[in-house]
Design brief:
The protein is of the alpha/beta class. It has five helices and seven strands. Helix 3 links the parallel strand 4 and strand 5.
Length: about 220
């Protein structure tokens, strides 16, 4: 039986690159997004859910459990960005970003990690950001949520050490995804989603005696 990876936010960008890379290398990939139209491929198992809601997370957990297969890798990649400052961002921005970027990872991990603990095997990747360590003026609640996600990664790492479940926080800088559509900057100023996917693969491919706790990635020419 093929190994199984669960990727959230997998319809585009980094999530899709990870799902396609792992599927191309022998994994079956559960790919979750609000819309899974166009997500097809050998070994791809699409599932539509809004993970900013508890109901959506519960639906995904239920689907994965009904597969009756161990989850080898969980990629908590669901996220959204809304620019603004704490003093002036729209009412509700904080709740939207915390639910999507943080609560989704919290509840999904809780729903699936029990089986990893029981098997004493599994890998969890938390898709953080350089915004997890560097605040910026127009980051507002986005930065808050990404700082929180990195904190959750650190807590999980400590909690799961005795159970042989590995946790890696990935902190990518500017990556050429749909969020940068319309930019006038040259592609040389960005990483590619495939760069991040290859790095995640390399971390997961390490022997179980080692773990990369944090991966900080930036474009070769530096931050934008």
């Amino acid at each position: 039986m093929n190994k199984l990876i669960v990727v959230t936010g997998g319809s585009k960008g980094i999530g899709r690159a990870i799902a396609e890379l792992f599927a191309g290398r022998g994994y079956d990939a559960v790919v979750c997004a609000r819309s899974v139209d166009g997500i097809v491929g050998e070994r791809i198992l699409p599932f539509a859910a809004d993970l900013s809601t508890r109901e959506g997370v519960n639906a995904l957990v239920g689907y994965v459990k009904r597969l009756n297969r161990p989850v080898d890798v969980l990629i908590n990649n669901t996220g959204t960005f809304q620019p603004g400052q704490i003093s002036n961002e729209a009412e509700g921005t904080f709740e939207t970003l915390m639910n999507t970027n943080v609560a989704s990872a919290y509840h999904l991990t809780r729903g699936l990690v029990g089986d990893m603990i029981a098997r004493r095997a599994g890998y969890i990747v938390m898709m953080c950001s350089t915004a997890s360590i560097t605040a910026y003026t127009n980051g507002g609640s986005y930065c808050i949520s990404k700082f929180a996600l990195l904190g959750m990664s650190k807590v999980l790492r400590e909690e799961l050490k005795p159970h042989n479940v590995r946790v890696t926080a990935v902190l990518p800088g500017a990556t050429l995804t749909a969020s940068w559509e319309g930019t006038d900057l040259p592609t040389s100023r960005f990483m590619q989603a495939s760069d991040v996917a290859e790095t995640v693969w390399a971390a997961c491919a390490l022997p179980p005696t080692a773990v990369v706790e944090e991966i900080l990635m930036r474009p070769q020419l530096g931050d934008i």
